[in-house]
């Protein structure tokens, strides 16, 4: 018998101004809340979060996130959690703040509410935390037993954030279906260590079709701080569909190549989703997909303002040695690139990156 696992947060709430109803949704989860967000984010929404939680009878303490999901920062927040005798932590902001709240809850127990203020990654719904050193070097990746008890995403807040976050979320979500599909075809395991479900595959596919149907107009709207139905669709694709799809559906080459790219300092200014976009197109090249598909996906990425050339993620004229470093890291033994349904070598990855760049530059003209 084949075991299959699908896991997810217990509840997901999305919509304009849902932030103001946070207290009602969180009410069954506890009565003493620790609110975590960086200065920018607390300035933006801190008061509304506190007012809503207070109205629901929560006793609140707020802590300013220092911006890095490091062991030291997690330790500091954990102390505040214990001092406040909290039974709920609310992580507000981007992927790093939410990961920090998640890692804290893992140590303290209690409930976790994830409150993304950007639709930039798969972090809000996941059970994963990416841990860094205090100076921002990647350290490790943890998959925890539990998911957030509640995810609340206010689409008006997301539409008012800088558009680059929204584009990046599209880049992260664009990978989900291609990776889940590769993992399914090869019979590989997901982050939960089993084969995936058909449910997760369909969710991943829906992430992709939603982006293709609504991505461009959603980016136009967000550029003008508007919440349209297409924005609602893409926020859901970036956050819920991609989040569930990547975890329960499986990863493959795209994220492994992203991880490889982070080896080069020059890519550090590019966001997670921007690097994943290059990884996705490289996966298609590696898989030997037809030109029409590669150009279609690259064309869509370019049309929503995502990178399709190496120069656009900080690699102007990278040497072949640099690309070999990326490729070696992408092919490390425990990397998800080996979930592709064929053997992948570092030489294949290096040349796929050269191929992606060439296609991207040609389409640019
Ligand atoms: N756990 C997971 O499954 C998972 C998946 C992908 C990525 N990640 C993590 O997420 C990180 C990337 O997250 P990210 O791209 O969201 O960025 P981030 O968390 O690194 O930073 C977000 C930035 O956006 C600002 N910000 C947030 N909301 C804002 C708003 N509404 N208006 C203006 N500024 C706002 C914050 O102040 C902060 O500077 C990765 O480095 C990785 O560590 C985790
Ligand atoms: Zn991702």
TrEMBL record:
Protein name: Glycerol dehydrogenase
Residues annotated as binding NAD(+): 38, 95-99, 117-120, 126, 132
Cofactors: Zn(2+)
InterPro entries: ADH_Fe/GldA, ADH_Fe_CS, Glycerol_DH
Family according to the record: Belongs to the iron-containing alcohol dehydrogenase family.
PROSITE patterns: ADH_IRON_2
Enzyme class: oxidoreductase
GO MF: glycerol dehydrogenase (NAD+) activity; metal ion binding
Residues given in the record as glycerol binding sites: 122, 172, 255, 272
Top-rank taxon: Archaea
EC identifiers of the protein: 1.1.1.6
Domain named Alcohol dehydrogenase iron-type/glycerol dehydrogenase GldA: residues: 9-155
Listed SUPFAM superfamilies: Dehydroquinate synthase-like (SSF56796)
Alphabetically ordered keywords of this record: Metal-binding, NAD, Oxidoreductase, Plasmid, Zinc
Cofactor binding description: Binds 1 zinc ion per subunit.
């Amino acid at each position: 018998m084949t075991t299959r696992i699908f896991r997810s947060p217990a509840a997901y709430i999305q919509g304009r101004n849902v932030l103001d109803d946070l207290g009602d949704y969180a009410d069954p989860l506890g009565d003493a809340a620790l609110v975590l967000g960086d200065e920018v984010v607390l300035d933006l929404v801190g008061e509304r979060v506190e007012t809503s939680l207070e109205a629901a009878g929560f006793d609140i303490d707020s802590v300013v996130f220092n911006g890095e999901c490091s062991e030291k920062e997690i330790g500091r927040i954990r102390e505040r959690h214990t001092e406040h005798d909290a039974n709920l932590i609310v992580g507000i902001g981007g992927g790093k703040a939410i990961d920090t709240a998640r890692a804290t809850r893992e140590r303290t127990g209690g409930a976790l509410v994830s409150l993304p203020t950007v639709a930039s990654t798969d972090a809000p719904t996941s059970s994963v935390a990416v841990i860094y050193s205090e100076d921002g070097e990647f350290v490790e990746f943890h998959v925890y037993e539990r998911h957030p008890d509640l995810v609340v995403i206010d689409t008006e807040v997301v539409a008012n954030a800088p558009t680059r976050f929204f584009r990046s979320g599209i880049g992260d979500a664009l990978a989900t279906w291609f990776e889940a599909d590769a993992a399914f075809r090869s019979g590989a395991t997901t982050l939960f260590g089993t084969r995936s479900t058909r449910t997760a595959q369909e969710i991943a596919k829906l992430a992709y079709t939603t982006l293709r149907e609504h991505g461009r107009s959603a980016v136009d709207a967000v550029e003008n701080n508007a919440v349209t139905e297409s924005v609602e669709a893409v926020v859901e694709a970036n956050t819920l569909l991609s989040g569930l799809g990547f975890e329960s559906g499986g990863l493959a080459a795209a994220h492994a190549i992203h991880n490889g790219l982070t080896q080069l300092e020059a890519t550090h200014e590019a966001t997670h989703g921007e690097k994943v976009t290059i990884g996705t197109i490289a996966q298609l090249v590696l898989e030997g997909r037809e030109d029409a598909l590669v150009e279609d996906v690259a064309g869509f990425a370019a049309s929503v303002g995502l990178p399709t050339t190496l120069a656009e993620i900080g690699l102007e004229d990278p040497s072949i040695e640099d690309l070999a470093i990326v490729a070696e890291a992408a092919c490390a033994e425990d990397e998800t690139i080996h979930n592709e349904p064929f053997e992948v070598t570092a030489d294949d990855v290096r040349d796929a990156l050269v191929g992606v760049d060439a296609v991207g530059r040609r389409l640019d003209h």
